[in-house]
Amino acid sequence: MYRVAILGDRDSIYGFAAIGLDTFPVEDATEAAKKLKKLADGRYAVIYITESLQAQLETEIYNYVSLQLPAIIPIPGVSDNTGMGMRNVKKSVERAVGSDIIFNND
Q: Which of 15, 34, 84, 92 would you label with 102, given CA atoms 20 to 30 Å apart?
């Protein structure tokens, strides 16, 4: 059975353990890149990653874009958010329904 992981700074991800996600706090981008590679070995179907960390690991994440698994999804953290998570939601909604029904003014 696949699992769900979350990768980011401790303050942003700590609470997700309460809902059953495997949490992986990291201190910097180098440590995060190594951890992402280990998490993407096939045990995890979904890897949530904080937006600030996602911005630092774009090259590494790009390697997984064309793969079916894992899905790497940016989420807002407690600081340094880029808005990538909301842009991805908007893009997914537009693809699914054919128009922007959530942010119809953007």
A: 15
Longest dimension (CA), the chain: 41
Assigned token pair, 44? 């995890």
Q: The tokens of 11 are what?
A: 């303050």
CATH tag, 3-97: 3.40.50.10580
Integer-rounded Cα radius of gyration of the chain: 14
Instruction: Write the pLDDT tens digit of every residue in 57-94.
Output: 999 999 998 888 999 988 888 877 677 766 776 776 67
Side-by-side strand order, sheet with 71-75: 22-25, 3-8, 44-50, 71-75
